[in-house]
Design goal:
The structure is a homodimer of 281-residue chains. With 281 residues, the first copy, chain A, is of the alpha/beta class. Helices cover 39% and strands 19% of the residues of chain A. In chain A, the strands form two sheets. Chain A has a seven-stranded parallel beta sheet with strand order 7-6-5-10-8-11-9, sandwiched between helices. Chain A has a four-stranded mixed beta sheet with strand order 1-4-2-3, sandwiched between helices.
C-alpha cells in the first residue's frame, strides 16, 4: 500500500477520533499504542489495523510486530510524518499505533466457573488506576472485569496503555449495581466490598469459591447502597500512620489475597508437595 | 503581607525552580501542591512557606489550611493571578502551593527496631510508581524508604503528589547497593529481592524480623548484582495469562504480605482475641 501523506486521509483521521469516547463508540474501535500493546491486541485476535511512521520509529524494533500483523492479514498502513502527526496531540514515541475492536459483554454472557473471581470497578475515575487494575486482574487470573456506575471508559487510550494490553484478553462487562447484585445472587457469587471502614480484616476473610471483589472511587470509596448491600465489607489492615492506599494498590492486594485460597486448594488437590516444587520453578 | 503581583518576585520564581532537581537541591526545598499534601507537610513540621491565589482557588476550601499554617508561623503568601501563573507550566487546580524541606538521611542515621521492614527502590523510573510505593510504605508501617541506583528523585513534584504527602512522614535515605548490603548484614536485616524469576513463592516466604524489600525497575527488574547477592529472591505467584504486575502494585503486595507475620506476632503477644476486636473496629 502507498505511504499515506495527507492528514485528511481516513486512517489518521480515524486514529485521532479514537481519543474520544464518541469516536470509539461510533467506530467500535480502541486506540492501541506501542509494540507491546499492539502485540497483545494481535495475540487476542482483536487488532483491526496498524499504522506506523518510519521517521518516528526505530524501524528494526517494529519489524517483527509488523510482520506478525501482515501474517495475520491485519492491514498495515505506513504514514508519512505529517499524517502521523495528525493522529494525536502528542507524539507517539514508538511510531506505532493500531486500532483494536471494542468488546462489551452482558452479565448473562460471562462464564461462571465453579471457582472464580471477578473484579468490579465502581466509579473508578483515574485512567491509570483503572488500567493498572485490569493488568492485575489478568495477572491474578480474574474471570472478567465489570465496570459499574461512573467509571472511566475502560477503552480510553490511557487505560489501555496502563493495562499493558491485558484489556484485550479479559472479558469486560458494564452494568449498574442492582443488576450486578441480582446476577451475583443468582449465580452464588459472594460480593466483597473493599472499604476503609470494613468490619472484616482481609487476612481473616473466608473466601467463597465464587467471589466478586468491589473497588470504589479513589476519593469517596464505594457508594452507600453497594456498601450496605454487599455480602461483606473488608478492610485491608494497615499498620502505619496513613490509613490510605492508592486504589490500584488496594485492588492488587485484594486480588493477591483472593488468589491464596485458590492456591491452597490447588495444592491440596494436585500438589501435596508444592513447597519443593515452588523451589524448582 | 501585600499581594505579590510580579512574576519576577522571589516567591513565584522559587516555586517555579522547584520543578527542577537543581532548583530543589539548591534551595533544599520540594514543591507541594494542593491542600492534602500541604497539610501533611505541615503536620510533619516540614512546611517552609505556602502561596495561594484567591482567583484560582475555592477560598473557603483553603481557609482551614491557611489558618493552620499561620498558627504554625509558616509564612503565607498571596499571589495575584499573573504571579501565580508563573509558578508552573500548568495551572494548579487548587490554587495552593507550598515549599517543604528536603530531608535525606544516611543509612547510619536510620533507626533499626527489633521488628521492622524497609522498602528499597532500585532504578524505579516512573514518578507515579515511586510516589505510590512511598504511600503504601507509609500505610503498611515501613521504617524507612531507601533509594538506590538511578531512581527518580523522590522529591520530584509528581512523586510528592502520588505519595499523598506520605513522603514527609517517612525517613528517606539514598545509597548504592554495596553500602546497603553491608548495612543490612551488619544490622541483621534480610534482603528480599522481588523478582519475576524468583525461586521462592511469596506465600511460602518465612519473614525475618528485620527485612528490606527490594523493588526494581519497571521494565528490567533488579540489577544482576542485587539479584545474586540478596538473601532471597521471591516471586509473587500469578495464576493468570499475563505474568506481569505494575511495579507499584507488586510493591504493595509485598508490603501487605510482609505485614502479616508482624500482625500475627502482635496477636500472639498482645491480643489473644483479636478476631473479635477486629470485628469491632
Amino acid at each position: 500500500m502507498p505511504v499515506i501523506d495527507s492528514p485528511q486521509n481516513r486512517v489518521p483521521k480515524l486514529l485521532r477520533a479514537l481519543h474520544t469516547k464518541k469516536g470509539r463508540e461510533e467506530s467500535g474501535l480502541a486506540l492501541v499504542e506501542g509494540p507491546k500493546v499492539v502485540e497483545e491486541a494481535l495475540a487476542a485476535g482483536r487488532l483491526a489495523f496498524v499504522a506506523w511512521c518510519r521517521e518516528a520509529s526505530d524501524e528494526a524494533g517494529l519489524r517483527s510486530i509488523l510482520r506478525a500483523a501482515e501474517a495475520a492479514k491485519v492491514p498495515v498502513h505506513e504514514l508519512a510524518p505529517r499524517a502521523f502527526a495528525a493522529t494525536a496531540d502528542t507524539v507517539t514515541p514508538t511510531g506505532l499505533l493500531g486500532a483494536a475492536g471494542l468488546r462489551w459483554l452482558g452479565l448473562a454472557e460471562l462464564e461462571v466457573p465453579d471457582r472464580a473471581k471477578w473484579l468490579v470497578l465502581c466509579d473508578v475515575r483515574d485512567p491509570g488506576n483503572a488500567g493498572t487494575m485490569i493488568r492485575s486482574a489478568d495477572a491474578f487470573g480474574v474471570s472478567a472485569v465489570i465496570s459499574l456506575g461512573h467509571c472511566v471508559d475502560l477503552y480510553e487510550p490511557k487505560v489501555v496503555r496502563a493495562t499493558a494490553g491485558a484489556v484485550f484478553h479479559l472479558p469486560l462487562a458494564r452494568c449498574e449495581w442492582p443488576e450486578l447484585r441480582a446476577w451475583a445472587a443468582d449465580k452464588g457469587i459472594a460480593t466483597v466490598a473493599t472499604d476503609l471502614g470494613g468490619k472484616v480484616s482481609l487476612p481473616g476473610l473466608t473466601w467463597a469459591a465464587r467471589t466478586a471483589i468491589l473497588i470504589g472511587n479513589e476519593a469517596h470509596g464505594l457508594p452507600e447502597d453497594v456498601l450496605t448491600q454487599a455480602d461483606v465489607r473488608v478492610k485491608i489492615p494497615m499498620s502505619g500512620r496513613a490509613e490510605s492506599l492508592n486504589a490500584a494498590v488496594a485492588a492488587g492486594v485484594m486480588l493477591y489475597a483472593a488468589s491464596a485460597p485458590l492456591r491452597d486448594t490447588h495444592k491440596k488437590d494436585k500438589q501435596p508437595n508444592t513447597e519443593g516444587l515452588d523451589g524448582e520453578k
